[in-house]
Specification:
The chain is an all-alpha fold. Helices cover 71% and strands 0% of the residues. It has 20 helices and no strands. Helix 2 crosses helix 4. The two termini are 17 Å apart.
Length: 509
């Protein structure tokens, strides 16, 4: 079950909300949220519910051990056991097959016997709840927060369904006070609805639409990948991964608000970044801040020599890449971002700051988009072939890039017959049909709403309006918001019913 499915929208969520509001007292409400969270996870991953529950109880016990440890040695051993236990689970389920495959590749030239592990299924959300558990133990060790007094409180922290499978990555220090006492308000509930519908529209109307085009382009063989289509594919994927993941985060934050919880923001318009350092301040904020607080700073951060600082950055982003998946492409993607962060701490960073803003933005966006090619590719050779096509170095079948572009534009705006274009595309193995009208409008909407355009527009309308009209404009905006949200909800639900659903990208991490 996922947020953008009819069964969640029209059955699970309404029933959960109604019974939650009817239950008296916070204690019963928390137990109800824990019960429905277990059901939510069991709906798609029943085989792993017991695993996560046992993991939660082990971490609950280790938290009490670390907190009650009178001697420093005992407390440290509790943290060590927690790290070994949690990373051991993550390593087995997420990296076991990857490690065995690579060991067998190394053993083959030495004529050593192959190791057989069998296909290990990856529990949904394991990377997220592992980091939740680790931060819980470490924060107790650092004295930032006491351990949970009730096992059910710890279980709700781990299992709470809005953030269980794809974040944001929450801290016990932020969640514990809200589990113990929170006030649900009508304003907070309305804000939750607004964020949830906003996220649903991001997912269904933009991410799902451009995903079809991105998947089709990335599935092409290098011989069929023309220069324009390579750029279409990477632009679509750039928009897909942002609107997919930020849409999920918006829905998670919105759901939390409906139940009285406040989650940290996870995105801040990352595609307007002026550097890669700026990008990581804006992209997946809960993950980048987790690595900063629990790995980068303990390694020494920037309070050390330049060489050590560069090494720290590379280690952090190597592990950040591995966190995303068990494949060499993720390792390369992590190191790629780490190298640019190192570069921006050299003289190049000062040089970059002297550039005009449009050039700094173009630089950051180009680096990020090239990185998304590596991230999206299934293998390193596929990534290299795709990058060659982006630069116009790959083989192009049949049509010249110029002809490809004009025929594509003609198809989009109805200037050329669809049948003619489809025939040409089939002959040349070039999927010009990926740029349907829906895809083009989704791309345009994605480009506009990946910026702070909406807030800027509202601000400018009020700023440039005559003073006597401003109260009426504000009132019109307040009245129009429920209508706009209702329209978005209806259209999003219609697109889901039309079969435009595809899973959230970050579910596989």
């Amino acid at each position: 079950m996922v947020f953008s499915s009819p069964i969640f929208l029209f059955l699970f969520l309404p029933v959960t909300l109604v019974l939650y509001l009817l239950l008296p007292g916070l204690r019963l409400r928390n137990l109800w949220l824990l019960a429905v969270s277990l059901l939510f996870y069991a709906w798609g991953e029943a085989a792993f519910v017991l695993l996560i529950f046992v993991s939660t109880m082990v971490n609950y016990g280790l938290g009490l051990w670390v907190e009650s440890g009178a001697g420093t040695s005992r407390r440290k051993w509790g943290v060590v056991l927690a790290v070994v236990f949690n990373l051991g689970l993550l390593g087995f389920f997420k990296y076991g097959n990857f490690l065995v495959e690579n060991l067998n590749l190394l053993a083959r030239p030495l004529h050593l016997g192959a190791v057989h592990l069998g296909k290990v299924r990856l529990p949904i959300g394991i990377s997220f709840f592992t980091f939740h558990a680790l931060s819980y133990i470490i924060d107790i060790y650092r004295g930032k927060m006491p351990a949970a007094r009730r096992p059910s409180d710890m279980a709700l922290y781990i299992f709470f369904f809005p953030q269980l499978v794809a974040g944001p990555i929450l801290r016990w220090g932020a969640m514990a006070p809200q589990i113990a006492g929170r006030i649900a308000s009508l304003d907070g509930f309305w804000e939750g609805i607004r964020r949830f519908v906003q996220g649903l529209a991001k997912k269904t109307l933009v991410a799902n639409t451009v995903a079809a085009a991105a998947d089709r382009v990335f599935s092409l063989s290098p011989d069929a990948l023309s220069l324009p289509m390579a750029w279409v594919g990477v632009v679509c994927y750039t928009l897909q991964i942002y609107f997919d993941f930020s849409g999920y985060s918006d829905m998670a934050i919105g759901l939390g608000r409906m139940f009285g919880f406040t989650f940290m923001e996870n995105f801040d318009h990352p595609y307007i970044a002026q550097s890669i350092k700026d990008f990581w301040r804006r992209w997946h904020i809960s993950l980048s801040s987790w690595f900063r607080d629990y790995l980068y700073v303990p390694l020494g951060g920037n309070r050390c020599s330049a060489a050590r600082n560069y090494a720290n950055l590379l280690v952090v982003f190597l592990l950040c890449g591995l966190w995303h998946g068990a494949a060499w492409t993720f390792v390369v993607w992590g190191l790629y971002h780490g190298l640019f962060l190192v570069l921006e701490r050299t003289r190049f960073g000062s040089w970059l700051e002297s550039f005009p803003r449009p050039l700094r933005h173009a630089y950051a966006l180009a680096v990020v988009m090239v990185g998304w090619v590596i991230f999206r590719a299934d293998t390193w050779p596929q990534a290299v072939a795709y990058l060659r096509a982006l630069l116009g170095l790959g083989p192009v079948a049949g049509l010249t890039p110029t002809a490809d572009v004009f025929l594509t534009i003609g198809t989009v705006f109805g200037l050329t017959g669809e049948d003619t274009i489809s025939q040409i595309a089939a002959t040349n193995q070039i999927p010009l049909a990926v740029l349907t009208h829906q895809v083009v409008w989704a791309m345009l909407a994605g480009i506009v709403f990946s910026t702070p355009f909406a807030s800027w527009f509202k601000h400018e309308v009020l700023r440039t309006s005559p003073e006597p009209l401003r109260p009426a404009i504000r009132l019109a905006g307040i009245l129009a918001e429920p209508v706009a949200l209702s329209a978005l909800l209806v259209v999003s639900a219609a697109w889901l019913a039309d079969g435009t659903y595809n899973p959230f990208i970050y579910f596989r991490f």
